[in-house]
Amino acid sequence: RPTPVAALEARHLVKEFRGFRATNDVSLQINEGEIHAIIGPNGAGKTTLFNLLSGFLRPTSGEVHLFGERVDQLRPYEIVRRGLSRSFQISSVFPTMTVRDNVLVALQSPTPLPHQFWSPLSRLDALGEQAEQILEAVGLGAAHERLAADLSHGEKRQLEIGISLTQQPRVLLLDEPTSGMGSEGIARVIALVREVARGRTVVLVEHNMSVVAELADRITVLQYGAVLASGRYDDVRQDPRVIEAYLGE
Ligand code: ADP
User: Fold this and answer.
1) CA 42, CA 27: separation in Å to the nearest integer?
2) Of ligand 1's atoms, which has the minimum distance to the CA of residue 18?
């Protein structure tokens, strides 16, 4: 078996906030093409780790590597250009614009995309076409002209994932994609994540363990800012330390 390629790697990451260690020597490897879930009790450091991986925070020490290149000193947009994109738990959607315009605005962000080489007129057509494809891919094919404000909570999350896809990420970070959803919305998100994970690496923070069980190839459990366990879902969930950490919450 060939050694898996690391899409994203944390090496001895530490993040301190005024002496408090929110991230405590985290090392982990996320392989190309896998769906990797990061779980752990509230305050375990999941959000801080996401911020470190996507360049929104600089580590106090340690390194982040994306496809073998060190990226922890780069700015978020420079990391986006190198293929990592992130959807936020806090909505990044413009409520007074239509669904389609939300995607069009994101498509025109400064990240270099192939369409920039086309002429202005065909460029607009191409952008429109790309927007359609993305909306189709996230299950909003019939919602183009609706105002983002009128979308359901679940549809907004779908749109946010669509917005992150405009950056053509090779690695997609999803922050609690099912939060606040009912079972129908959750089922839709599971299908959507499976879809977007084809040909991509997906890292998600997720509280719902049945979602993790359905989606994740491997998981990392954080506790007090450190890695408690990491590996295949079926192995990790039987780890006595993991069971104890969750029962003790
Ligand atoms: P999780 O996402 O797992 O709930 P967080 O990463 O949000 O955990 O937080 C981990 C710990 O770090 C918490 O104790 C939190 O209070 C602390 N923390 C996070 N961000 C900051 C900050 N900017 N300043 C001070 N403490 C912070």
Assistant:
1) 20
2) 25
Output the CA 147–ligand 1 centroid distance in Å: 34
Per-residue model confidence (pLDDT) at position 164? 87
CATH number at residue 243: 3.40.50.300
Domain count, the chain: 1
What is the residue with the minimal CA distance to atom 24 of ligand 1?
17
Alpha carbons 90 and 82: distance in angstroms, whole number: 23
Contact call for residues 168 and 109 (beta carbons, < 8 A): no
Which SS3 state, helix, strand or coil, does residue 114 take? helix
* Residue numbers of the domain that contains 221: 6-247
User: For ligand 1, atom 6, which residue shows the shortest CA distance?
Assistant: 45
CA pair distance 23, 45, nearest whole angstrom:
6
Query: Which protein residues touch ligand 1 with a CB less than 6 Å away?
Result: 17, 20, 22, 40, 42-48
Amino acid at 227: V
Q: Which pLDDT value is given to residue 106? A: 84
Mean pLDDT score across all residues of the chain: 88
Residue 1 lies in a domain: no
Q: Whose CA is nearest to atom 21 of ligand 1?
A: 17
Task: State in Å: Cα 49 to ligand 1 middle.
Answer: 10
The model's pTM: 0.88
**Least confident range of 136-145, 194-203, 237-246:** 237-246
Chain-centroid distance of CA 65 in Å reads: 16
Q: How far apart are CA 169 and CA 76, in angstroms?
A: 13
